[in-house]
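Sequence in, structure out. Go.
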Amino acid sequence: MAVERTLLLVKPDGVERGLIGEVISRLERKGFKIVALKMLKMTREQAEEFYSVHRERPFFQELVDFITSGPIVAMIVEGENAVETVRIMIGPTDGRKAPPGTIRGDFSLDIMENIVHASDSKESFEREHKIVFKPEEIIG
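Output:
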């Protein structure tokens, strides 16, 4: 397996509920390394670019409104098979269907307010992380 990177966001609901440390702790206990980390309030322009793959879907505006509704914590996570493993750790998008033991399964009861976002592919990571991080903000 190859060492790779993925982007993980703690969304406004996760920040508001004080789950930043819990999310980071789970990632570190799994053996992942955090190579970039910051708190920010995503601009509308950033959010529209971030969710551009959903632009034609009816829920696009709701996604943009939610992610810009409060601060988020963005991190780049590095480790073996990071994209797939982190996606397994966060669970399915709909927190009502996410199994216990996953971040969404333990903390989310909604499809929109589902605590976290993680890149779903290496290609998504390459596009998404550039919206949130400048190259000089990434270690290594």
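Check: The beta strands are 3-10, 33-40, 72-80, 116-118. The mean pLDDT is 97.
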